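Slide 14.
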Amino acid sequence: MTVYDKEDIMGLPRVVSREEWRAEREALLRREKEATRARDALNAQRRALPMVEVDKEYRFDGPAGRVGLADLFDGRRQLIVHHVMWRFDTDEACPICSLLVDNTGHPAHLHACDTSLVLVSRAPLANLERFRARMGWTLPWYSSHGGDFHYDFGATSVDTGEDGSRVNVFLRDGNRVFHTYSTNARGAEPLLGTFNLLDLTPLGRQRHVTEFGYRDR
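Slide 15: predicted structure.
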């Protein structure tokens, strides 16, 4: 036996001729194009969502000291915040959040589109810096320890105090900051390049979804 067990082998695609494959590939391509057009329409709806002004003051601890929400933009107009779930029982970031951060490319192209991407967690900054060094991450990572930011934007349950992974998007207009979008669980999959690449393969995502408990939205 190879590294794949019997169930994996039995689940492999059937073998056909090149002509049969081409016909089925063209049929799938038509469906892929339909899905692409539907995704484009959905993205347009997302961009057209109304926004809410953020009038509450939030403070974060970062490498340069204490900063506010507007500072996280680093002078740019748009801000994507990845709330990295912190496992207080193990004193480290959760595996699925770590996978997402590992998949994040160099931010130069985001910056060219006037957009910043930062990580925010509830753990003290010293804990984040220790874990960042271990993982080799270079994205800006801020601590909201002791504040309401995670609670107010849905990354921590108000009822249970339990953390979850979430992505929030903000827009800055002069000195005013607006909240424009929020998603979690499978809604953050576009950020996971590994999943998108594995979706092109016959064996798919394999262990990642089940091992990390990645649930449907």
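Speaker note: Confidence is low (pLDDT under 50) at residues 1-7, 210-217.
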